Amino acid sequence: QKEVEQDPGPLSVPEGAIVSLNCTYSNSAFQYFMWYRQYSRKGPELLMYTYSSGNKEDGRFTAQVDKSSKYISLFIRDSQPSDSATYLCASGGNAGNMLTFGGGTRLMVKP
Amino acid sequence: DTGVSQDPRHKITKRGQNVTFRCDPISEHNRLYWYRQTLGQGPEFLTYFQNEAQLEKSRLLSDRFSAERPKGSFSTLEIQRTEQGDSAMYLCASSSATETQYFGPGTRLLVL
Question: With a cut of 50, which residues of chain A have pLDDT below it?
Fold first, then answer.
């Protein structure tokens, strides 16, 4: 079993929809949780960064972490075709150490 | 542009050849990471440096792989005697001690 699990999708939604992307993790030592967006053949781009449990909002994006259930979520409001990409969740024990990634969820937002 | 840069962006080589990749981190970041990503998978950690010291290596980093960061700035990743299974995207990331990791564009390796 991988330490971070993510549904690979693809997830297809119409433009303007609210998108929910989710991950689960198994390592209780994880304290930092990130979401990266990756376009085809590009490097991952940091979207959201959360420490421990709680919510964090940045524009159309909201990240949630529930450490009691080891569940990580990313919500995208008013989704746009430009949001079409692969979304990677990642977790780490502290800010300086290695990140463990999920396999990524491919999102397609149709105009 | 002050982001992480990697060179080359693409590399095609024949099985058995050696290849070397370079990563230039964000200038004020003292930590540098290498990851490998295969098609349809998330990045997998290979190794990381704090300044010039290599502090951690993954079991994925076989004896054919070596990484250096001689002056605590740029880093190189060398693969000796390449195999077809080495074909992947090699990603470099950097961070300061208290921030998360920022990735470069990657080097895509194809071993024929």
Answer: none
